[in-house]
Fold this protein.
Amino acid sequence: MTLRALLRIADAHDTASRLLARGVMWLALATVLVQFVVVVLRYAFASSFVMMQESVTYLHATLFMLAIGYTFLVDQHVRVDVLYAGWSPRRRALVDLVAILVAVLPFCALVLWASWGFAARAWTEGEGPMAYGGLPLVPALKSLIPLMAMLLAMQAVSTGIRCLAVLAGAATTHLPHRAHQGGA
């Protein structure tokens, strides 16, 4: 497969990652609004609903688990870039490619391996709510863990393809959101 074909695959994945992020970004607003209602109900009316309280956890987990690939795409993950920021785009691409191969993909494989049975067991056993009167969606919540690992791995592969393009001289940066910013 040619580098050009691989870059088209990376473009398609990056587009899908952006679309997913646009969809789940609204979960941040939903989380804040539901939490606000929970607090008002508790302190103004001395009332609470377990389902509503749990929904904050579900919304928050869904937002972060599904947005992890996009966060990696736009280079907003945690990084110690005391040196990295001053390096050439080629050197950054090499370091990121090595990090993807040595750290990110093995991490994703480990999380996927460790969480697959955990999530599958929740479905086969019909695991119920976390608390009495809670949301009966625990299997779906647990399934977000292997899904998160897959989304991150796919984005890491996409970024790795872009790193290869920079190293081959076919691109100026491996960070597509920075291409219009001059690669900085």
About this structure: Residues 3-181 form one domain. The helical segments are 3-24, 26-45, 50-73, 89-124, 138-167.
